[in-house]
Amino acid sequence: MKIINSISELKATVKQARQADMTVGFVPTMGYLHEGHLSLMYTAKKENDFLVASIFVNPLQFGPSEDYAVYPRDLERDAKLAEQAGVDVLFAPPEAEMYPQGVQNMNTYVDLKGITDKLCGKQRPGHFRGVATVVTKLFNIVGPDYAYFGQKDAQQVLVLKKMVQELNMNVVIRVLPIVREVDGLAMSSRNVYLEGPQRQAALVLYNSLCQAQKLLQQGQRNAGLIRDTISQLISQQPLATIDYVEIVDLQNLQPVEVITDAVLIALAVKIGKVRLIDNLLWEE
Ligand code: PAF
C-alpha cells in the first residue's frame, strides 16, 4: 500500500490505474479506523480493481465548540489496518494541502437546502456544508467510480446521494449497514471517549432502537408513541441526555405521524459529554 500526501501525486497514481482499465473504489474517512470503516474497505476491494481510502479530519465540518482539536488520530495504526483491508493507496493530506487558503478564507461551498437543517444539522449548523464540500473536493481529486459510506451516518448518506444526483457527479454512492460491537453499540471513532460506566450507559441507544423495532414488528404504526417509548427508555439512563429522537420520512427527513412508508428512526444522545448517534431503517 502506498501512502500519498499530495493531491498531484494522488491524481497521477489514479490516472495510471485508469489507463490500465481499472475501476476505482473510494472510502473516505476521518481515520481512527474501526470495523465499520474496514467493512467498507473489504466490500470496496471486492467491487473494484483499485481501492483508494482517505484519512482527513476535516476542519470544515466541525463547529467551534466541537472536538476537532482532540478528534482521535493515529495514522500509523490506520495505515496497517487499511493495508490489511486491501487498500491500494491511502490518501492522507495535511490540512494545508486540502485548504491552502485556510478554511476561514474559502469562497466556494457545496451547500444543500432543506435536509441539512434537520436532525444533526439542527444541533450542528454548517456541519453538512463542511461534509458536502470536502467530499466534493475528494471526489474531484480521486475521481472514483464507487464511493462507500456507512448507514450509521444516515443523514450524511442522504445529503451525499442528493448532492451526487443534483450535481450530476460521476460516482455511485454505496451504503453499507451499521457495524456493531457484540453488545450492540454502533461502532464509532468517538466511542474511545467513553469512560468507565459511560460505555455501558451508551447501550441505551441500541436497546431503545430494539424496543422500537419490537413495537413495529407487533404492528404499531403510531410514530409519536414509538418516539415516546424511546425517549422514556433513554431518560431512565442517568448518564444520558437526549439531543433528538425523531421518526422521519426517508426521502425528506420530515417527521411522520403515522408510519405508512419507509422511515428512519434516528437518535442523537449525549453520554456525559460524548455525543453518539444511531438509527434504525424501517421499510414497510
Ligand atoms: O463520515 C465521515 O467520516 C466524514 O464525514 C467524511 C465523509 C469522511 C467527510 O469528512
- Into which percentage range does the β-strand content fall? 15-25%
Mean pLDDT: 98
Low-confidence stretches: none
CATH class of the largest domain: Alpha Beta
Radius of gyration: 19 Å
What is the CATH homology-level superfamily of the largest domain? HUPs
Number of separate structural domains:
2
* Fraction of residues in helix: 25-40%
* Structural class estimated from helices and strands: alpha/beta
Q: Number of DSSP strands?
A: 9
Order of helices and strands: EHEHEHEHHHEHEHHHEEE
CATH topology of the largest domain: Rossmann fold
Which ligands does the model contain, each kind named once? pantoate
End-to-end span in angstroms?
Answer: 43 Å
Model description:
By secondary structure, the protein is an alpha/beta fold. It folds into 2 domains: 2-176, HUPs (Rossmann fold), CATH 3.40.50; 189-282, Pantoate--beta-alanine Ligase, Chain: A,domain 2 (2-Layer Sandwich), CATH 3.30.1300. It is 37% helix and 20% strand. It has 10 helices and 9 strands. It has helices at residues 7-19, 35-47, 75-84, 95-98, 120-123, 127-142, 154-166, 197-201, 203-217, 223-235; strands spanning 2-4, 24-29, 50-55, 89-91, 146-150, 172-176, 240-249, 263-271, 274-282. The protein has a 6-stranded parallel beta sheet, sandwiched between helices. A 3-stranded antiparallel beta sheet has the order 7-8-9, with helices on one face. β5 (146-150), α7 (154-166) and β6 form a beta-alpha-beta unit. α6 crosses α7 and α9 (203-217) runs antiparallel to α10 (223-235). The chain is globular and about 55 Å long. The model has no long low-confidence stretch (mean pLDDT 98). Bound molecules: pantoate. Pantoate binds next to β2 and α6. Residues 28-30, 58, 61, 131, 134-135, 153, 156 line the site of pantoate.
